[in-house]
Amino acid sequence: MKRIFALVLACAMMLGCGAVSALADDVVTLRVWAGIQPEYGYDTLIENFNEAFKDKGIQAEYTRYVNNADGNLQVNTFLMSGGEIDVLIGYGTDRLKTRVEGGYLVDLTDMMAAAGFDPIDELGEANTVPYTIDGKYYGLNTKYENSSYLFVNVDMFQAAGIEIPYGGWTYGEFREAAKKTTQGEGADKVYGMYWNYNSGPNYSRGFCRNILDEYAMYKNLECTEANFNDPLTVKGIQLMVDTMRNDLSAPSVEDEKADSMSIQTMFLGGKCAMALGISQLRLVKDLATYPHDFTTAIVPMPVPDETFEDKAWSFLPGAGDIISIASSCEHKEAAFEFLLWYVQGGMNPLARGGRIPLWKGTDANEVAAALMDGAEGVFELTSLQNYINIDKTNTTMLLDHPEWALAEITAIYNEEFENALFGIKTAEDAMNDATTRANEAISLAIRNAAN
Amino acid sequence: MSRKITNQRREDILGYSFLLPSLIGMLIFSMLPLLATMYISLTDWNYLKGLGNWNFIAFRNFKDLWNDTWFTASLKNTFFYTIGTVPVALVISLGISILIESFCRSSFANGIRIALYMPQICNIVATATVWKMMFSSYGPFTNLLRSLGWTNVPRMLTSYDWALPAVMLVAIWQALGYRVFIYSAALQGLPSDLYEAASIDGANGWQRLIHITVPQLRPTTFFLTITSIIGSFKVFGLVNIMTEGGPGASTYTLVYYIYKAAFSFNKMGYASAIAMVLFVIMLVFTVIRWTSNKRTEEE
Fold first, then answer.
1. A345 and A427 co-located in one domain
2. Together in a domain, B107 and B251
3. Domain shared by A77 and A217, yes or no
4. Residue B170 contacts residue B162 (beta carbons within 8 Å)
5. Which among A378, A434, B34, B153 has the fewest CB atoms less than 10 Å away?
6. What is the pLDDT of residues A248-263, one digit of tens each?
7. Nearest residue of B to residue A80 by CA position?
8. Measured between alpha carbons, how far is residue B221 from residues A20, A121, A318, B153 in Å?
9. Integer angstrom CA distances of residue A174 from A158, A247, A300, A302
10. Is the pLDDT of residue A23 over 50?
């Protein structure tokens, strides 16, 4: 009897295991990777997806990677070896291009056509077509890229008698405001401006040249000649140098790096009146972690002079958070379902951290509510409203052309840019040298490609 | 006779079988990558495009190196780093070892040696991060220099002139313990009769140091010099964490540039060419060490 009982029990256990395994086999779990901490919206997003797709047997789990050079190298390694990433939210068109060249991302063109999803119509031409590679879609921009805005400490501006520049301003007006709001000395000094070069160098590096739109890097669309010595780029760098080294209204790049300054320590710590790096808007709302009692306004970056007024709200790049599917993903259909769900409203919880969806069908009220949630008293609401209502299609970005030696010439630009900020060279000399060096790198890249 | 040969062969086979695991490991993890690097250095391989997706370009990478300002800066910085760290570290560690041996009781001496060795076993990321904080505008190291009367102390890690010396200082501090251990062991092995004879002849402490200790330590110093040179040519971790090669290219070193060329510029072929240059430099020092070892054994 005991033997029969044991046999039945063993069979039941085996059947049970089989049932569990069958159930487990039926559920597809997608591994979603992005560079944002889960508490800034991804936890809710994944929860919503899992709830909405549990009947379809699709679930998702979230992994946060660090969006810096080492973190992206890790992502590339995982994409190469396969098996870790199904859906990737990437940052930066150069990385998208590199990953496509390596064959690590799925061509979404036919899948979107089959699903009746027209990216140009749904996300806007300026946010999609320039991001195609050889006419194909390997990733979709999902949020309005917001790198060209400044945080302004309204209380400090009011104390200095400066009006909030809602509609934009010029380099001259900006420089004066930075001077006026600079106070104190030594460790207690409050600066007018914090360029955020240490924790977000791309913002300031981009600010100086982005006004040139598609000519920000190269003189021509064939990309055979660098354009770093354009007078507008030099003027932008000179503005930074003036605030850092002449007016002393911004911490020098030496101090930024030596003291590991960040938006948290400088802007949220009340040590500056203005700061660049608005993609960290989520931190401003996070009063529990970064308590502060001033109001923050969001204003556009300054332009060289009045003739560039129309550029105030339309610096490039215009879109970001590129969602893609890894070539190694075993459940591409399920991943594509996630992708469409994410783009078409699924990502709305991210708005509370400042990520504004691009999709035309986005419920503006829902996004505004998410962004405004907890913003009263923290943000100056008119400026926040302006920020939400920006025309998200008025941007320029070209990608589908040969960007010769892009990584090298970016490194050359960065190095010479630093030479100017450190005062080793004048802005003009640094950019002339950057152009000469970059042209040499481009010539080598063209020669290598020809062989 | 034949039985003897059989036994000899059996012993040989047994010996080689003991060697086999490490031999296989060396073939797979050292020789194979070395040969692969040699070949890849002759190609234009972008590693993201996958294995085998390359063009053979002969020695073009090696030719291009000499017109590359990053490479020449890296080479110059690496030599400067080596010349700056190796002799200074050896002199300091020899001095500390002599002081420990001369003035400390055994248990206290061991405590000091262990304390000095701690940085060697600490995680390099943690070490570099703490030193970054030490070098900050109001960090302990900067304040120390200020209190010593240096009014306008530069931001060490963000100064074009001071960043590399600052990294070198950390490297010297970090490797001190290992060298002190080696020197202490060598000092304990020096024959005491030489010192006794010198004392009887009226030699003072300084004379004994210069004419007995230093010459007697020559093999140890030579060993430490060569291994330190090889180690300093491989510097990467401190640079990557403390300065990321900056400001500008003022702290680029050969291994850092290999990493940058391979994983930032995706030019694995070019990075392999730099690695081959580094290999040749290291080979020269290794051959010097082998030759010296052989000579010592013969003596």
1. no
2. yes
3. no
4. no
5. B34
6. 999 999 889 888 899 9
7. B48
8. 66, 73, 61, 35
9. 15, 12, 11, 6
10. no
Chain B CB contacts of A408 below 8 Å: 265
Q: Which residue range forms the structural domain that includes residue A139?
A: 23-144+318-372
Provide the CATH number for the domain around residue A411.
3.40.190.10
CA nearest to A104, candidates B263, B49, B241:
B49
Please give, rounded to a whole number of angstroms, the shortest distance from the CA of B122 to a CA of chain A: 21
What's the domain count of chain A? 2
Find the domain containing B292 and state its range: 62-298
- HEC states along A250-297? CCCHHHHHHCCCCHHHHCCCCCEEEEECHHHHHHHHCCCCCCCCCCEE
pLDDT at residue B286 above 90? no
Identify any residues that bridge with A357 across adjacent strands, giving them in sequence order: A143
Structural domains of chain B, count: 2
Which backbone phi and psi does A74 adopt, to 5 degrees? -60, -45
Taking Cα atoms as reference points, which of A255, A151, A116, A128 lies closest to residue A197?
A255
Quote the minimal CA–CA distance from A235 to chain B in Å. 21
> ipTM of this complex > 0.90?
no
Mean residue pLDDT across chain A: 86
My answer on whether B169 and B29 are in the same domain is no
User: Residue for token digits 């994409």?
Assistant: A79
Does A259 sit within 8 Å of B249, measured CB to CB? no
Residues A353 and A275 in one domain: no
Q: How many CB pairs under 8 A join A and B?
A: 74
C-alpha neighbours within 13 Å on the C-beta side of residue A196: 28
Distance CA B147, CA B152 (A): 11
